[in-house]
Amino acid sequence: MTETIRNARAAALPAKLSRSWLLVNAAKEEIFTEAQISESDSVIFDLEASVSDDKKLAARDNVVRALEGGMSAWVRINKMDSEFWDDDLASIAMLPGLRGVMLPETERPEQVSYTAMRAKAGLPVIALLESAMGVENATKIAEAPGTFRLAFGTNDFRKDTGFSGDPMALAYARSRLTIASRMGGLPGAIDGPSAAVASDEQVRTDAEVTHMMGMTGKLVLNVDQVVTLNESMSPSEDERDWARQLLEAAEGGSEITDGSYLPRLARAKKIASLASTYGLWNA
């Protein structure tokens, strides 16, 4: 029996609730274990952006060994029109540790559906939107069979459009992913990462933007940022206190006072559920 290596708490968390999505360079097999035992809710072995063409075959072999040997992860495969896409899927689709795939440069809904069919029935696909076309087709992509969540490739999107990294400049794109996810009945969208060298303070600031835009997950490039990101993407202590007071009042028989009561109660229940899932409700 193969020993499981993945962080037990993170492995048990449904991917629809994952806050932190750690991208791991698949060419660097020596950092796989650190990623697996980290507090990142989800781990993504990256065969695409972080791996040069001359190292992609070796990187794929690394991923196959890892997912056969007790590790658990998502895999960012290469884009559909690359020479590597088909073999990526053929190599990893049936591996026991595979959680799902991330499809880069997604621009049309059929790209997701075809990827899902090429892999195996039921394999979830995260559609990474990295261009103006991808963002404008976000709702169609969200509604496509096989789409599990939408993710925002902020850096490549900026290259495609010329936008700056200012949150105001990217607000439309982020809101499009949030609205599309709602239209498609998907979990919240996954935002792009902070810079790999970002301080904890910057990670918190970036996560606040993500949260304000209705997104519920975030890519992360540096394992040292994971704990700060998880804290920032979870219900705050103030939110938990507010929810606890409202729920206790409701259990005590408090009356409906106005039209906002039931929506507030529903929000309190959602905060309590998320906090409990993340191990924070009784913290």
From TrEMBL:
User: What residues does the HpcH/HpaI aldolase/citrate lyase domain cover?
Assistant: 19-222
Which sites bind substrate?
R76, E130
Q: Which GO terms describe its biological process?
A: oxaloacetate metabolic process
Which cofactor(s) are needed, names only?
Mg(2+)
Report residues binding Mg(2+). Answer: E130, D156
UniProt xrefs under Gene3D superfamilies = Phosphoenolpyruvate-binding domains
Name the PANTHER family on file: CITRATE LYASE SUBUNIT BETA, LYASE BETA SUBUNIT, PUTATIVE (AFU_ORTHOLOGUE AFUA_4G13030)-RELATED
Write the signal peptide boundaries.
none
A GO MF label = lyase activity
Q: What top-level branch of life does the organism fall under? A: Bacteria
| Entry keyword set | Lyase, Magnesium, Metal-binding
What is the recorded name of this protein?
CoA ester lyase
Has the keyword Lyase been applied to this entry? yes
Q: Which organism is it from?
A: Brevibacterium aurantiacum
